[in-house]
Amino acid sequence: MKTLIYFICCFLLLFSQKETFAQCCAAGNPVSTNCTVSEGGKDILMVNLSYIYSKSDTYYNGTERLDKKYLESYFNFSSLSLSYGISNNLRLTSDIGYFLNKGQKFAVSDYTRYTQGIADLNLGLVYNAYKSEDKLFEVLQTARFTIPVGPFNQQYDGIVMPIDEQPSSGNFKYNIGLTLSKKFENSSFTLLSVNSFEISKMIETETSFHKYGNLYNLSVMGLYRISSAVTGMLQLRSEIREK
Q1: Contact 127, 92 (CB under 8 A)
Q2: Cβ within 8 Å of residue 236, ≥6 positions away
Q3: Cys-Cys crosslink for 216: which of 31, 194, 198, 240, Cβ 3.0 to 4.6 Å?
Q4: Whole-angstrom Cα distance, residue 138 to residue 61?
Q5: pLDDT, tens only, 113-137
């Protein structure tokens, strides 16, 4: 019963609204939900290749949607992930991302600019803190360290691109998280709650200093195994980035 109440609270929080001054974008790998379920075991190596396409062209003033189109942001992103079981309850993970392109198209002039290249390298640990075979419920604790291995000073038409358009985030990040997983007997459905907190170090460029605000991520998602090779996922996610 306590588990059900927790999931309901997480679901309601996704629809809560809070106005704040914050960045809308950040460079580096997109927020990932990798390693959100218990996979593999001791001495088992898992390799995963993923691809993400993103397009954003909607603007808001507070909570009010604006009809005017300013610019369109987009990216094509791929990543390679590795997971190795140190023990049955502890996994070492890593992933590196690459932007095939990441750019902006301005609505007024129809001008497009973009960058491309390696993004960030993530190293992490996933610990299975609790697992109940009877209740089909488990708790995973995660810790991740981000290393900015990609370029952070790319130019387009001789102009250095803004921070949020660079492939790499340009700084080190520290992320801790907690994942709850609930399966159901004689069912192909799994319910997940993924929660994480991320802090970043200061970014130093030739002309200024910058720091990404702390990032809070709360996700509730349902996984349904359609077949042995296909799984469908529906996710509701709330991200809050401080100033």
Answers
A1: no
A2: 11, 14, 219, 220, 221
A3: 240
A4: 40
A5: 999 999 999 999 999 999 888 888 9
